[in-house]
Here is the input.
Amino acid sequence: NAGVTQTPKFRVLKTGQSMTLLCAQDMNHEYMYWYRQDPGMGLRLIHYSVGEGTTAKGEVPDGYNVSRLKKQNFLLGLESAAPSQTSVYFCASRRPDQIEQYFGPGTRLTVT
Amino acid sequence: AQRVTQPEKLLSVFKGAPVELKCNYSYSGSPELFWYVQYSRQRLQLLLRHISRESIKGFTADLNKGETSFHLKKPFAQEEDSAMYYCAPQGGGYNKLIFGAGTRLAVHP
Here is the structure.
C-alpha cells in the first residue's frame, strides 16, 4: 500500500515548456486535490476532483489544467510554464466519508 | 472571505519550554478545524482535529468560537517537534481545506 505517490520528484523547465505531473493513489479514494506550496503562503488549492471524469477549479487554477480519467490518477498539466509556477506541488486524496486528507511527497518544480 | 492567519512565521524555543502556535480564522459556517504538520523531508500529515479533542504527541488545540481561534499548545517542547505546522479549516463544497501560511517551530537543545 503505497498511499499517494507523485511523479516526478523534481523537474526543471524552461519558460514556455509543458509538462504533466502525475498523482496516483491506491486507497480507492474518490476525492483528489492538487495544491501548490510557496514560501509565506502555505498551501493553495489549484484544482480538485470528486470522482472519475470530474474536475473543478480551486483557489489558483490559472495556467493549469487537470484530468481524472482513472479514479486512481489525477494529472496536473502546465501547457506553457512560467517562472511564477516555480513551486512545490502536493497532491492529496481522501474518502468522501472521512475528513483526513492524505498527501503525497511533493514535486519540486523550477521554471527558469 | 475565508481566511486563516498564523501570525508567527518562526517560533524558536528551547527544549522543555511551553509552545503555543497561534491560529485565527475567518470562515463562514461551521468548519472543521485541523492542524497538519510537515517534518523535514516528510510529507504533510494530519496532527490533530478539533472534533476529536485528542492529544497527539503531547499537543492539544482548543477551539474558541468566540475569538475564532484554534491555537496549538504543548507544555514541554521536544527537539523532534521541530517542523512546519499548518492550521487548516475544512468546509464548504467537497470539504476543501484552506491552509494558513504555516509556522516553523524550531526546538533547540
